[in-house]
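seq as requested:
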Amino acid sequence: MLGLIIGAVALIPVGFGGGCGVKGWKDGAEVALAVCAKEKVESRNAILVAANANCATDIEGVRKGVSVVVFQVEEWERAASAAMKAADVQVARHALDTGQFGTI
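struct tokens:
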């Protein structure tokens, strides 16, 4: 009976040691998985940061392009307005010169 008690007492540290060893292995595996996941996230983040920088550059280019188009349209509008004023003056002169002022 004493031998059985001594055997049981001797197996307790072995059991706890094995459990601690398995827990340490499991914790190590979880840390390795977390590190791997972190590296994937950092890699994806680097890709997204680069893409975001490209988008900012593209947006700035589009803004500059739109401002050029808007400026050109404003120039055309000013030229068209001036041409219409000049045409109105010519029509009025022609109407007065031909005596058709009242028939228009």
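The mean pLDDT is 84.
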